[in-house]
Protein 1
Amino acid sequence: MDELINAIRERFGHAVLDSYTRLGETTLIVKPEALHDLMLYLRDSGGFEMLTDLTAVDWLGRREPRFEVVYHLHSYSRNLRLRVKCPCEGSVNSVVDIWLGAGFMERETWEMFGIEFKGNPELTHILLWDGFPGWPLRKDFNWREDVPLPDNR
Amino acid sequence: MEKEILFRDSAGVETDVIELNMGPQHPATHGVLRIKLWLDGETVVKARITPGYLHRGTEKIAEQKTYHQVIPYTDRLDYLAPLTNNLAYVMAVEKLLGLEVPERAKYIRTLLAELTRIESHLVWYASHGMDLGAWTAWFYAFREREKIYDLLEILTGQRMNNTFMRIGGVAADLNHEFIVGLTDFLANFRTKALQELHTMLTDNIIWKKRTQGVGILTRDDVLALSATGPVARGSGLDHDMRRDEPYLVYDRLNFRVPVYTEGDSYARYLVRMEEMEESAKMAEQCLAQLPKGPVIADEAKVIPPPKDRVYDSIENLIHHFKIVSEGFSVPEGEVYVSIEAPKGELGFYIVSDGSQRPYRMHIRASTFINLQTLEKMAVGGLIADVITLIGTLDVVLGEVDR
């Protein structure tokens, strides 16, 4: 794992903001500009064949930039897992062309946080109904009042 | 709606593509799954899945609850395997806390996780069979499932939504009645009941014709579409987290991981059937190896004291009151903990800001992500085979929609 992190740091230079291992989980933090290239590199040269999970965290008022998109990758050939985090202001490049399975996960993250995934051809509602107002998993979503009832459908 | 594609059928006649809604109230969609199909005659041209009819916002609710209060919500995700959901969640919190679980509790957890796997696979067997017309299979599988529910009722007090796992261990020790009942059940299940289930479907010619070659997924499809669990192992992806990334006591148990390379619905059927047998073996080994000792960790800041001691000691009363009313603080950090749930990889990603409530909790729901494969598998097949695909993916809408 250390070799891989060093190779990535050498290859992507300042685009890698940080990397650490805590509680046995290795994390890479990258700039949004380099995200797509890094993911492609991790799949093709790093052996991370599968995107296990994709989600986001809203750090409203606590960190800048506000959002963090979190990817969990899994390498079956090397039996390794890696977390990649990408701090962003609400827009990152889609990885759906690298892993088709990112489709549902990006749609869910988009509708819950309002984070745009550039290059995803189908950013539509998946768990909520079409036209749902607001982004429910954002910290400034007022869940006591903001949730409207769906009309009869 | 404007006509998207104009087709010429085999006789050369121009036909329209028909749009058809399957669900959300279709009896074979295992709940409230809606699939929009585009059909050329009986052949599926395109399929689009619309889940969300059971969305309850579990991830948002968890942000308002203390860590203990979240446990009952996890039961209601995959409600056919509530104990494995509990398990994944409490393991994530324990990892953040750095809490070590007693040996006996680990064995009880493993035992219950495997019992839950059998229970979940029995429902899959029953409903998959019934969807394809094998009504008898339903009754045989549900007879066995009822026995498991009776056992769980003896142990946890409830048939479904058990909420038996606690942060630091389990809620209670195994009682004599449960152990005797479980031993009988496992012996009968392995020698008799499982053979009956095999007799009904495994060599059944109708069953084979409905499942063999239907819904083929290659190993590359599985990797690209993030499918896990029996779906992946039916397509030749030889990975089982119990063997390859062992947690609890799986490294001390002997078991085999069934893998098939055909990638069709029949291969996934065989994987699950063999998994049931392996799970029964594992449960027997857990009972045989069960060590003595406490079933919950001794950590007064996290675990409430036993109820009978609350009444005669002021310290215990204070601890109990504090933990129940305001919860306990969890160190700042983030973890992703996943386990091999009956339906695939179930993961919990928890971000803590040092307070008593999760700052963010994300559930990596196995069936939600496995469901994406249906859009691929359905294309080019018959509409009747879509029913096979829903069954073979073993979807539970409580987990898909969260």
Protein 2
Amino acid sequence: MNANTLEATRPSALPRLNEPAPSFEAVTTHGTIKLSDYEGSWLILFSHPADFTPVCTTEFAAFAEIATQLRDRNVELLGLSIDSVFSHLAWMRSIRSSLSVTVPFPVIADLDRAVATAYGMIMPGESSTETSRCVFFIDPKGIVRAMIYYPLSLGRNMKEILRVVDALQMADANQVATPANWEPGQKVIVPAPRTVEDLERRLDAGYECADWYLCYKSLDDTAAAAPAKELEEATV
Amino acid sequence: MPCVNSDGSLTPVAAQVLGALASLDAGGTDDTVARAAALPLYRVRATLRELRLAGLIEEVDARRVLTPDGRAKLAAAGVPAAH
């Protein structure tokens, strides 16, 4: 791809973390859906390059497999590609026939690329006609909380999708952060102190500290696993 | 209209949502209809929007209620319009 083509197809904007997700009204396999329809639920909006392609087929089966686990966490799934709704429907039928998997979530038919452009899902350096494998974690207030972009050749890891949801919800519920490779049930990080008073208070709090700024604490399992009911801003 | 088939009958989801709304005394909110229909909230909101555009429901005092057309469609679908 030459530079002119790259520039012409460059997305005008990308979503930003902790800012409102771009609103949309889109035709899907479940009818017309607006972003605001998901208010009160978490939403995972994800794109795939194209229907009837091998990696995407394995991903859709995998997303369908975790759909119930996500629903238990108050999370809905919404797929997207630059294909028609008829293509989506035929592909869903094919997946059910060939893999015995029913896809329970809607898929946006983004033929005019309106949603893909708003979310920066098209990476012209990789493909100007397909969406990359993007994942947006949008909270119940419509705020973008995490984004992951994968290239066309790399199928997504559902354990990581679930882990990100668990970490975000746990952090919201408890105002803590998660260390590298955190999994539910493991110790979490207490936000670093911002004032002298905070510092002195945490030294007496009984945390497990590697240093004054790196302290861990345990959460009881029920608190760590429970879906967040209220969003609270946490300083981490 | 996506909530109505080409033959004028209700789609299964539309019938489910309309039936759930009919089962609620004094109409319903998005949440109460979702619980009554056992459907995800987003699906209920999208379907209620379509039903309103089709003139099958209306909003009265911030609650959704069936219109006479909505009750007729529901009856034609074989779903009782009220307890």
